[in-house]
Structures are given as structure tokens and as C-alpha cells.
Write a structure and sequence with these properties.
There is one protein chain. The chain is mainly α. It has four helices and no strands. The protein has one domain. The radius of gyration is 17 Å and the shape is elongated. The two termini are about 15 Å apart. The mean pLDDT is about 85.
Length: about 120
């Protein structure tokens, strides 16, 4: 019965935002993983991710700190890929795929909420 009630706008906007951001981050992480195979580009990209992540860790909001942690971890795995290519590649691929699927699930919830809201 509760599935017929309209969805609050705040919940709907949160699902849409989480969906787009997570799916985009997942695709970005998969792209970073692919670029790590290029010798010079991979090193520069890894160091850049660590620097951006460190800046995010000093942010005031919780979102800044979470994204900073993820960026730092991705950059650290990129640097570690010099020594352990297979392991880090698998971790980055699984992380990117997981974020992408989580984003698609939130987008699905957003679309479902829009349909309920329009009834």
C-alpha cells in the first residue's frame, strides 16, 4: 500500500544526485584504471589524485572528506600499481563497477519516484 504514496521531494532529489554522482564516479574510476597503464600519464594522474584527495580531506563538510578519502585511495592505488599492477587494477575495477551499479540503482529509484509523484 505504501508504494502508492507520493515520494517526498527531498528524498527524490537525494536519489537523483547520488545516482548521477555515483555513476559518474564509477565511470571515472574505470577510466583512471585504464589510464594507469600508460607509463608517464599514470604516474602524473596518481600524484594528482593524491594531491586533490589531500585537499578534500581538509574540507569542512562530510562530503568533502569522503570524496577526499576516495581520491586519495585511488591515487595511492595508482602509485602502488607500479609494483602490483594486477592487484590494484582489480581493486580499482571492482570499485568503479560497484560505484556505477550503485549509481544506476539510485537513478532507478529516482525514476520510480518520479512516476509515483506524477500520479
Amino acid at each position: 500500500m505504501s508504494e502508492n504514496y507520493p515520494v517526498p521531494s527531498k528524498d527524490l532529489s537525494e536519489k537523483g544526485t547520488k545516482g548521477i554522482m555515483s555513476a559518474g564516479a564509477g565511470l571515472g574510476l574505470l577510466g583512471v584504471n585504464a589510464l594507469l597503464g600508460v607509463p608517464v600519464v599514470g604516474g602524473i594522474l596518481s600524484v594528482g589524485l593524491v594531491v586533490l584527495g589531500a585537499i578534500g580531506l581538509f574540507g569542512k563538510s562530510r562530503t568533502d572528506k569522503v570524496s577526499g578519502t576516495i581520491l586519495t585511495a585511488a591515487g595511492g592505488l595508482g602509485i602502488a600499481s607500479i609494483f602490483m599492477r594486477g592487484f590494484t587494477g582489480n581493486i580499482l575495477s571492482l570499485g568503479g563497477l560497484g560505484l556505477f551499479v550503485y549509481g544506476l540503482m539510485n537513478i532507478g529509484g529516482f525514476v520510480s519516484g518520479l512516476r509515483k509523484k506524477s500520479k
